[in-house]
């Protein structure tokens, strides 16, 4: 397989075939992210992509899923993305699902009909980084879209039949807007009604704008109890028709895996016990990105 630069994927895609179709991220401006700093975004050549699909067809017969890397594979023009999906279907017939990252720009560029066409050809899930439901926070982290735009584009993916996984970040608003961010994010998630929610806790990365703000004293990183209070408020304001809420990423102090709505009361009680010191939190040395 041919890989360039940094390769990332969602935790749930750990056992997937990682097929890199783009290098970097088409947005690459988020203040908290250092993954692709200094890396120019590009779509890889069809020849390389098809070689990698052929390689996977020969050597990856135990994997049942494919994840299209990297930061925003949905940005690939429709005809090219369709040809990739069709090649996967023809050469990897045992694969049951293809997934990729999406952002507000790529979802805006694809119509519902185009997304349905991708779904019909094997794309099963898109992963969208919401990060926050608070417009001021989204602007501060240079997300490139407001909350109403994010909600509309998430609903577009759902309308096309795609599974939707939404990521949010605890602590990304700092201390001043912590409660506002938590409540607004819960409400935005509820409006999107995704199949999966993944809550991560902010860990500052050197050489990013947010790290520079922190070093300059203009951004306050939340402590463990503050992160838990934010998680509780966000979770309390999240209402899903049927979905999984995960906060079991390596960055989180308290692992949570809840199916909503049935597990809501039990999870709120668990968070309250942790806040009361009755449940231990993950130590700093075990946290990671």
Structural summary, described in words:
With 289 residues, this protein is an alpha/beta fold. It has one domain (11-279): Alpha-Beta Barrel (TIM Barrel). It has ten helices and ten strands. Strand 4 (65-69), helix 2 and strand 5 (97-102) form a beta-alpha-beta unit. Helix 1 (46-59) runs parallel beside helix 2 (78-91). The longest helix is centred in the middle third of the chain and has 15 residues, at 178-192.
**Radius of gyration over alpha carbons?**
19 Å
Alpha carbon gap, first and last residue: 25 Å
Which superfamily, in CATH terms, is the homologous superfamily?
Aldolase class I
- Determine the mean pLDDT: 96
Task: Give the overall shape, derived from the CA principal axes.
Answer: globular
Q: Which fold does the CATH topology refer to?
A: TIM Barrel
Tell me the strand order in the biggest sheet.
1-4-5-6-7-8-9-10
The percent range for helix content is 25-40%
- The parts where pLDDT drops under 50 for at least 5 residues are none
- Largest sheet report: 8 strands, mixed
